[in-house]
Design a protein that fits this description.
CATH superfamily: Response regulator
Radius of gyration: 13 Å
Helix content: 25-40%
Shape: globular
Low-confidence stretches: none
CATH architecture: 3-Layer(aba) Sandwich
Structural class: alpha/beta
Length: about 140
């Protein structure tokens, strides 16, 4: 499964930059878009969802203006999801953050990765993603 677009959404400029560079190595042929504001990412995602693209979203779950779970709830109510392939990877600094999520078993969530992202974690996720197996937590 090839991703046409990879999104990186995190409220830290340094994390966005670092994740972008690491993702570029693993998903080199994909267009990579990074956002510090989840609201801006959501708007751009809505446009791309209407284009029938394969989209991979690396989403920080702890952001001040809109949390990762809040963004997922908004995406689940989007009628454009039926025409697009969106895979979400939740990213957080702490493993305990994943157990406190208020997200039902969303079909969009394909994995959870603990920061910091590394080439090894991304490659492990990519292998599982391409084999269509969900990855619980890569610590």
């Amino acid at each position: 499964m090839c991703n046409d677009v990879v999104y990186v959404v995190d409220d830290s400029e340094l994390v966005c930059f670092t994740h972008h560079k690491l993702i570029e190595k693993v998903y080199g042929k994909s267009v990579i878009k990074k956002f510090l504001e989840p609201e801006e990412a959501l708007s751009a995602l809505m446009e791309d969802l209407g284009q029938n693209l394969n989209i991979l979203l690396f989403l920080d779950i702890q952001m001040p203006s809109m949390t990762g779970p809040e963004m997922i709830h908004k995406l689940e109510n989007c009628h454009l999801l039926a025409h697009s392939k969106l895979s979400v990877v939740l990213v957080s600094s702490g493993i305990e953050d994943f157990s406190n999520l208020n997200i039902k078993d969303s079909h969009m969530i394909k994995g959870k990765i603990q920061k910091p992202l590394t080439n090894e974690k991304l490659e492990k996720f990519a292998k599982g993603h391409y084999e269509n197996t969900a990855l619980d937590v890569v610590a």
